[in-house]
Amino acid sequence: MAMDLGISGRRALVTASSKGLGLGCARALAAAGCDLVMNARGADALERAAEAIRDEFGVSVETVACDVTTGDGQARILDIAADPDILVTNAGGPPPGRWSDWTRDDFIRALDANMLAPIALMKGCLPAMIDRGWGRVVNITSQSVKAPIPALGLSNSARAGLTGYVAGTSRQVAPHGVTINNLLPGIHDTDRAASLDKGVMDAEGIDRDEARARRQATIPARRYGSPDDFGAVCAFVCSVHAGFMVGQNVLLDGGATNATI
Length: 261
Ligand code: NAP
Prior knowledge:
- This protein is α/β, with parallel strands linked by helices.
- The chain contains eight helices and seven strands.
- Strand 2 (35-40), helix 2 and strand 3 (61-65) form a beta-alpha-beta unit.
- The longest helix has 29 residues, at 104-132.
- The radius of gyration is 18 Å and the shape is globular.
- Bound molecules: NADP nicotinamide-adenine-dinucleotide phosphate (NAP).
- NADP nicotinamide-adenine-dinucleotide phosphate binds at residues 16-22, 39-42, 45, 67-69, 90-93, 140, 142-143, 185, 187-188, 190-193.
- It comes from Oceaniovalibus guishaninsula JLT2003.
- This is Short-chain dehydrogenase/reductase.
- Pfam families: adh_short_C2.
């Protein structure tokens, strides 16, 4: 029998959720009985994902097709989500590159996507959670928060900023029954992982299987994570059982980052 997460009937907003890790979180929350608001830019994939969740789990799913990195997109999402009990923030990750190539505009884009968008969503959702005396926020960040990856300097910089904000804010809202935590994915099998595989293929002049084998060899679990692995932990952190978990960075990376001590 599945563990009862105690959140059936709660309303959850999951941004950037038509594919990959966001979709994994949306599916796991739906399996726990949450009604959803889902978002992505591409309306077709978003509608397909929402319909599949309605069919499989029988929960209500509303969709908002827009760019979560813009103020206008955030306003539309917050309007439709109307004070959710659970907020999972996500957006696409910045492209890899080299320190000498990144311009101010590249940094501003990365900050908008991976720092300021989650902060705006939290600012929009936290007041009602506090009034209600219950809320859950999970931010999807990256293993690079614990062990920065040189080629992902734009991501490293933006996510470090978000992590600093969460460290303080999570402790300010905890007295009201609201928790904020970050999930730090290592390599998971999504389109994003495929594009990072491609980077290794091009840099090393090897084929996809070899690139994947080399990347898997760096992971003690010897496999990529799946969106379902990731979603299950997200749903647990959003559950009634995780109310004492506050301001944590939870690594989900198959052991790749040895930050245990
Ligand atoms: P993914 O498979 O490429 O999926 C990204 C999802 O986000 C899609 O549904 C996409 O739909 C949506 N999206 C992207 N940009 C958006 C925007 N501006 N506004 C609204 N929706 C947007 O990516 P993923 O692998 O799940 O990665 C999710 C996050 O985890 C990223 O920030 C990534 O950097 C981070 N991460 C991933 C891994 C990994 O191995 N997969 C590892 C570490 C960190 P549309 O394109 O239609 O908008």
